[in-house]
Amino acid sequence: MGDGRKAAVAENVDVRRLGLTAAGLLVIVTIALALVTNGRAKPDLTHTCSATDRQFIDAARTNMTALELWSEQYQSGDASAGDLVGQAHAAAKIMRGTGPTDFSLRQTQRLMVGMLNEYAKGVQLHQRKRDAGPTMYRAYGLANFAHAVLLRNERPLARLGCDIRPLL
After folding, report:
1. What is the mean pLDDT of residues 52-81?
2. For helices 81-97 and 51-76, angle between their N-to-C axes, nearest 10 degrees
3. CB 88 within 8 A of CB 112
4. CB under 8 Å to 109, separation ≥6 — which residues?
5. 3-state SS, residue 44
6. Which of 28, 141, 160, 163 places its Cα 20 to 30 Å from the Cα of 101?
């Protein structure tokens, strides 16, 4: 065999070896991804009405009522912006500390905490004579999302004994 032919055969073997290595790696990655994605925990989409769910509903109702009263006092001049911001942060902390087990109430919890924090930021911006519009828009958007989640899940929760009408 000539030197040119030997070089071509050796090069061909190297290309095959590289191809087989790449194919082997592809198979390993595919198997690993299949194992990882199939092993993920699936969210529990079964409604519950546990004691912690009822506690969340009561806490949400109480904190939203209190925030509404503080907001009215702020608008009438009877409360400072700092008072209202403090109430919003306290409400967010309380809501974050609840542990609803129902998936829709957990989603509502996250939305409400975000809404309360955005609302507090908006009041602070307004107090500093800055544009609070986008922040308040986000706060009300989050509130609307929470309302939609609750509205969509009102009947199934009511059947289990959780009355979320006070939050609507």
Report:
1. 96
2. 170
3. no
4. 56, 60, 95, 96, 98, 100
5. coil
6. 141
Q: Using DSSP, state whether 99 is helix, strand or coil.
A: coil
pLDDT confidence of residue 85: 97
126-141 pLDDT, tens digit each = 999 999 999 999 999 9
Tokens 């989050």 correspond to what residue?
Answer: 142
Structure tokens given for 37? 């994605």
Q: CA–CA separation, 76 vs 73, rounded Å? A: 5
CA 150 – CA 152 distance, rounded (Å): 5
Map out the domains of the chain as residue ranges: 1-40, 51-167
Structure tokens at 133: 């519009």
Tokens of 96: 């974050």
Q: Token pair for residue 113?
A: 């905490």
CA distance 121 to 88: 9
Residues 53 and 102 sit within 8 Å (Cβ to Cβ): yes
